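User: Here's a chain of 300 residues. Predict its fold as tokens.
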Amino acid sequence: MSLPASLAPIVLFCFNRPAHLAQTIESLQQNVLATESELIIYSDGPRNKSDGPLIAEVRRYVSQIEGFKRVTIIKSEQNNGLAASIIKGVSEVLDKFQKVIVLEDDMLSTPDFLVFMNEALNAYEHRNDIYSVSAYGPPISFPAGYNQDLYLAPRASSWGWGTWLSKWEKADWHVSAFPELTKDKVKRNQFTLGGEDLWPMLVKQQKKVIDSWAIRWTYSQFINHAYGVYPVHSKIRNIGTDGSGTNFTFKTGYYGSEMSDSKIRIDANIQPDHEVIQAFADYYKLPLALKIKNLIKYGV
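Assistant: Prediction complete.
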């Protein structure tokens, strides 16, 4: 097991789901490197009075967490929302540690999740065309004969991911080139190589219909001609698509549930595979009804 001298800290964002959080932590505690890793927890504050008891339960639980090198808990008295919490929290941790592994409170992980993430962060740190690494791999259909354990995709993952200060500080959270992008069909088509859902999401973000850090992080990756690294076989399973989440207010099994604890071969020189990128984009195709809704409601 070849690992960097210093392990990346784990940053975990939680809100008002103590049962999901407990499963996430218990899964993480089973990781080979848990006892050698720092865990930094950001606990967001209540949106309203009804959140109070659940957040109190979350904070009682996190105050008793063991099994890590060090546990730091950062509590917010007001509600910041997921996007602001992640942008601020990841920025703070990266300023101190230079690299980071990020989880939300609804992610199960394989026992070698931390091993893979640390190896990947070490392997791709100096690649200017790679801005993030992910342990989640969507269930896409790979072309016959594809024999790599990883692949590059023009999209950032928000589920069990990591990055470096040198890449994160290049993020454009204001999406300053948005007006130009709306007029440039060629660039918009390039942006949606990571999925045709990306442009409608970015439009909704700029119209303040949604509040997403992930679409802005993907946009920042795009303007810097960079990729995210994904595993062929996922080491993360999202348990928040049961209707309980802030972003997933409906229940879905669309994102896959299989995890693999098999060793991932990391090719530090991996290059984009256009067939794989097409299969990745196909996975994120929008249903016709949603396309019509986006066109009528948002003009996209």
